[in-house]
């Protein structure tokens, strides 16, 4: 590619977008382009957008407007991700500054689309070919000590509030051979922890192979110390996956399992395919397999028709589970979804008040979980520098950030004694340095 020479990718939203942003960067790097230096103007900017929340499109267009420079010039602007998929050609009509539009299943064609822009075109590519992009992506280059690996995309569950089936397409799973190869590339590049990604990651399958099989195969990779996966659906928590939490040491004791609501009436209206009782039974099975596991969840408050009694059921299920962490959201109507046209939309002030109550309970539980680990000795993977000299930060097996004074470097694993629970992290003191990242 003759021009442009530098690029910047801004990813918003979920971890799938983070992964996609990394792969787009690798694509452009393979074309001879380089990431722009921090603070410098890039020749091309890719806005990798999320459409899960209300006003996501408006935020994307606002970001486009901010890219105009003081001298009136602007970079080549590519609108990517789920807003691009949802808006399509309309995006170019709404903003003349957008040079190309590419959906999340077509970004492997980004270099060619940029060449089309050089030729004077303003292309739109929102095709949804099943997994074509992965075959076209370059081999993984050196990654961080923790890396994402997309194993499954799309969704067939059709929750009534969700746009994912329309922006990411149907559920498809990547072949196990491709995943093992990409994982090996990551480990060869220095990755020590891999998080498997999918809209319904535990629905992954390849013939007779299940997510549990994939995890066991990945655990055999020399140099891969830790495995995680997200996001799971309760109806896909199979027996062999639960057993893996007891039998595979490399699988971290952490499970993100969204329930969204505690009221069966609301769960049915959401088309969640499970009841509160079934969800609790699944949690009980997981904890029986691994009593040390940390449970994380997602909750939506103010879904259409939610009464105070329904919301009370959500608070009860939070109390029964005892979450280590949770993501909480106000219901946000997404155009084209069934819930957007339902009767009994909950007033914003009611949603705000319920969200505050839910967040207070979740925060109380999170602090209690962190406090329960004080005094324990555990192994952390150092992944970044702390705020002061000599301080490093690593992730515990339960996904907590742990601060420790140590001369260990990024990629090292160290044993620490957890000494104090902070609101969103834990303090620790060094016991011993265990292993060092391979060069």
Description:
This protein is of the alpha/beta class and 439 residues long. The protein folds into 3 domains: 6-125, Methylthiotransferase, N-terminal domain (Rossmann fold, 3-Layer(aba) Sandwich), CATH 3.40.50; 132-372, Alpha-Beta Horseshoe (pyruvate-formate lyase- activating enzyme), CATH 3.80.30; 377-435, Nucleic acid-binding proteins (OB fold (Dihydrolipoamide Acetyltransferase, E2P)). It is 33% helix and 23% strand. The protein has 14 helices and 21 strands. The chain has helices at 15-30, 56-66, 81-87, 90-94, 110-118, 132-136, 164-167, 176-188, 211-218, 239-247, 264-270, 276-289, 308-321, 348-372; strands at residues 6-11, 34-35, 44-49, 76-80, 100-102, 124-125, 146-150, 152-153, 172-173, 193-197, 205-206, 209-210, 226-230, 254-256, 294-301, 325-330, 377-385, 391-395, 401-405, 413-421, 426-435. The strands form 6 sheets. The chain has a 6-stranded parallel β-sheet, sandwiched between helices. A hairpin with a 4-residue loop joins strand 20 and strand 21. Helix 13 (308-321) runs parallel beside helix 14 (348-372). It is globular. The two termini are 32 Å apart.
